[in-house]
Design brief:
Largest sheet: 6 strands, parallel
Number of domains: 2
Strand order of the largest sheet: 3-2-1-4-5-6
Distance between the termini: 45 Å
Number of strands: 14
CATH topology of the largest domain: Rossmann fold
Structural class: alpha/beta
Number of helices: 10
CATH superfamily of the largest domain: NAD(P)-binding Rossmann-like Domain
Radius of gyration: 20 Å
Length: about 325
């Protein structure tokens, strides 16, 4: 049994992982958060501002692994420094999601800039010698988004991005049928991360978790087979998206309380434009390092997930 610290522990993915770790009964868990929560069996909740490095170092004494779930770069660097001072062995940055092509896509995925900055900070920290072991968990998009509006995980908020299986409507960029996307279920992500915490070997810096690699065309074909009718495809021009225009009203307004009402429309447009363009550049295709390191784990394939959610509906 080792001590695990979750920073930003009230976030949606953090709560998914927290439930899993508590269920294994294999770890002592400290949950750090800006808000105050009552401690529960197996979890010690600690309120912190993350602003005092000395306080963080004290809180992390005896911790084996820190998992970070917030994206603020300066706060993340302070947490990393505190972890090093406290003698923490392993660190998980808030890298979750997109793959190694993300940095090349920051012109359209600007909100990912903090995680790239933190990745460089960790890389530089270990440049001369390894100061702290870390892995970037990358898994593409959640397969669960294809199940919207059905609730297929306990905490993760979903919404349709490219593919709306409820309405059988797809937003596609012209020429994108052969573009690849990695889809991994929330359960698979959580289970692999739990397995990685018990893995005795050295963690890979790039930690790809690959559920399924599928093309846009394959998703359309699966939808047609399972729903018994074809997608209505709305084609968008790449040059319009690159010019900052999303020429459709058929996109989801992001259901996040953290986004102010007056920013909801422009931010939703920005996210959809960025996603559609970055798919074509490979940002949502990830490697399979953790698949290889945990070879006995069986991943849920996209078509099996879709059949479970949509067959007969």
């Amino acid at each position: 049994m080792v001590k695990i610290a979750l920073a930003g522990a009230s976030s949606e993915l953090a709560k998914e992982i927290l439930d899993k770790l508590v269920a294994t009964q294999k770890h002592e868990i400290i949950a750090l958060d800006l808000k105050k929560f009552p401690s529960s069996p197996g979890v010690e909740w600690v309120q912190t501002t993350y602003e005092d490095k000395a306080e963080l170092s004290q809180l992390l004494k005896g911790v084996d692994t820190v998992i970070c779930f917030f994206w603020d770069a300066e706060t993340s660097k302070r947490l990393i420094d505190a972890a090093v001072d406290a003698g923490v062995r392993r660190y998980v940055p808030s890298e979750f999601g997109t793959g190694v092509e993300t940095e090349a896509c920051l012109d359209v995925l600007s909100w990912y800039a903090p995680k790239i900055e933190v990745g460089h900070y960790l890389e530089n920290l270990n440049k001369e010698k390894k100061v702290i072991e870390y892995t970037k968990f990358q898994y593409g998009g959640y397969t669960n988004y294809l199940g919207y509006p059905h609730q297929t995980s306990k905490y993760i908020t979903t919404f349709p991005v490219q593919f709306n299986f409820e309405k059988m409507h797809a937003l596609l960029v012209e020429g994108s049928l052969d573009d690849q996307i990695t889809f991994t279920t929330v359960d698979d992500v959580v289970n692999v991360i739990a397995g990685a915490l018990e893995y005795e070997g050295e963690w890979p810096v790039v930690g790809g978790i690959r559920g399924s690699n599928v093309t846009v065309k394959q998703i359309l074909e699966m939808g047609g087979r399972i729903r018994g009718k074809p997608f209505e495809i709305e084609w968008l021009k790449k040059e319009d998206l690159e010019a900052g225009e999303l020429k459709t009203d058929n996109y989801a307004r992001l259901p996040f309380a953290s986004v102010p009402k007056d920013a909801l429309e422009p931010f939703s447009t920005l996210v959809h434009r960025g996603y559609l363009l970055s798919v074509g550049r490979g940002a949502w295709t990830v490697s399979d390092e953790w698949n290889k390191l945990l070879p006995d784990y069986e991943f849920t394939q996209v078509e099996d997930f879709l059949k479970t959610v949509w067959a007969g509906k």
